[in-house]
Amino acid sequence: MLAIEEIAGARLGVALLTPHSHFEYSPLSVAEPFDLGKAHRFELPELLEGRGVKTIIDALEAVDAERREVHTADGLTLGYDALLVTVGARRRSALPGAVTFSDSRAPAEVQRLLRSAAAGRIERLVFAVPPGMVWAFPAYELALMASAHFAEHEIPASVALVTPEPRPVDAFGDRPSAAVEEMLRLRRVAFHSATPVRAEPGQLIVEEGEPIPADAVVALPQLVAPQIAGLPRDELGFLPVDEHCRVDGPPGVYAAGDITSFPLKQGGIATQQAGVAAEAVAADLGEDLHPQPFRPVLRGLLLTGRAPRHLRAEVVRGRAERSTAEEGATRWPPAKIAGGRLGPFLALHGAPGGAPPGAVALELDAVAEAVTRPAGTGSSGPQPGGRR
Ligand SMILES: Cc1cc2nc3c(=O)[nH]c(=O)nc-3n(C[C@H](O)[C@H](O)[C@H](O)COP(=O)(O)OP(=O)(O)OC[C@H]3O[C@@H](n4cnc5c(N)ncnc54)[C@H](O)[C@@H]3O)c2cc1C
Q: Which residue minimizes the CA distance to atom 6 of ligand 1?
């Protein structure tokens, strides 16, 4: 919406079809258990005031591409010239026996585990990334923050991270991976490259090798594609798009974000796709511009918790040698979801920018070719959750 508005002003009418009247900005939910931040909720009427956007509270159910109409859950039929599908992915628990960090109840669950550790009932806390389509970053943040929390409160519990990735934050490439590896070492988080299968009392069963000792396991959710009737899907159910984010097949249909078949399901990537799609929409509807193709740039702000007392001077740089910052959008303010338009817009509406006060963050940029290399062509390529 912000991109369309910037490109076409009031020449293109925009309608927003959304099941909720609010917009949940949840990346800071990982900081909630440690009292270092909070998920942020925006009310759409306030966010959209004066922007001329027609908001319809309902859900997209089916697309009739021939008639250029969508059908909604409440039975409405709406016509369109261009349809941009941004319905995201559904989160599914994938590790039996583990607490899944999935919805708004998850921070309280993790807080309960931290209290159990403080009371001596948990000695080994494990954070696990399941196989398949997963954005693995939050597991690193949770593990680092838990370890910092234990050090700060002198709780004698250990923290481990289990992930199918061959090395830490593999999708970012060599330098960021080495920086995170160093941070895990400094914070005494044990790193295991293994595919978790299920949590049992006292252990985490993995596909490769011996079980990993665990008194409690917190797992990330697997991402699955919601089905929208009338649209094509790839073998995993996601929407196949071309380099302008046009959905393969139906004319006038575009997609951005987690619902697309691009394997990295990350907010920064979603905002880049949204900008690309907006340019293609505007050009296809007659605006005078040359739409740019999708050239993904992977950026992450990794929350690592408060610096423990004995590590006050820790400095870890994650920036890749050839930083891609200049290729992308403006970097102000540093945000959990990097977006040239979204970041400043949300900051102006009160979103917390950068790391919450007291928390230490690692800024990571991937080398462009590490991100664009097709999946499966090397260890630095986009591996959704690593091995399957
Ligand atoms: C715990 C956690 C922490 C994360 N932290 C970060 C981070 O720090 N930085 C980062 O870049 N990424 C992060 N991510 C990933 C990021 O949240 C997603 O990649 C990003 O939100 C994807 O954006 P999206 O717009 O595609 O989908 P979503 O953010 O999921 O938005 C989809 C929207 O579509 C709506 N919708 C769903 N179905 C329908 C329908 N049928 N009709 C109409 N509307 C519908 C939903 O209500 C929702 O508002 C994190 C993910 C998790 C799970």
A: 27
The residue nearest atom 4 of ligand 1, judged by CA position, is 27
Quick one: 280 and 242 in the same domain? yes
Sheet containing 318-319: which strands, arranged edge to edge? 299-303, 361-365, 318-319
Domain count, the chain: 2
The string of pLDDT tens digits covering residues 278-308 is: 999 999 999 999 999 999 888 888 888 876 6
CA 56 to ligand 1 center in whole angstroms: 19
What residue numbers bound the domain in which 74 lies?
Answer: 2-89+224-284
- 110 & 7 share domain: no
Tokens of 109: 């669950």
Looking at the domain assignment, is residue 385 inside a domain?
no
Q: Could you tell me the distance, in angstroms and rounded to a whole number, from the CA of residue 3 to the centre of ligand 1?
A: 18
pTM: 0.90
| CA-angle at 105, arms to 100 and 109, nearest 5° | 65
Q: Is the CB of 268 under 6 A from ligand 1?
A: yes
Which CATH number characterizes residue 204's domain?
A: 3.50.50.60
Tens digits of residue pLDDT in 352-370: 666 677 677 777 877 555 5
In angstroms, what is the span from residue 208 Cα to ligand 1's centroid? 31
Q: Distance between CA 17 and CA 279 in Å, rounded?
A: 20
